[in-house]
UniProtKB/TrEMBL annotation:
Highest taxon of source: Eukaryota
Protein's recorded name: Serine-threonine/tyrosine-protein kinase catalytic domain-containing protein
Organism field: Glomus cerebriforme
């Protein structure tokens, strides 16, 4: 739009008065420039509005999917709990031939430098 105003200004400043636009032509051109600008803005806003609506629909559908998955997960956990409850019980293991525990500072230390 600024480029259109610049062209119009240059026409108005023409050294030859016969080349300058008449006031009615000037008014019409300014009206067309403004109409074009506002139409572009309206289209942008419509597009933004449509995009926002689509994003909202996508989020709602994702929420519905996640909710249904959570419900299915809970019901499957409940149904499988009795069959898998033995996995959650503690067991005592006996390990043999383990070395005596020692502090990390005891014994030899090996330091390797990398270039």
């Amino acid at each position: 739009t600024p480029l259109e105003y610049k062209k119009l200004m240059e026409q108005c400043w023409n050294a030859d008065p016969t080349e300058r636009p008449k006031i009615n032509d000037l008014e019409d051109k300014i009206y067309e420039i403004r109409k074009s600008y506002y139409q572009k803005e309206i289209n942008k806003n419509k597009n933004k509005s449509m995009i926002k609506k689509l994003i909202k629909k996508i989020r709602l559908s994702e929420l519905e999917i996640n909710t249904s998955l959570e419900i299915n997960d809970v019901s499957s956990i409940k149904s499988n709990y009795t069959s898998t409850s033995r996995l959650f019980t503690s067991k005592v293991y006996q390990f043999t031939n383990l070395p005596e525990p020692r502090n990390a500072t005891e014994g030899t230390v090996c330091i390797i430098f990398y270039k």
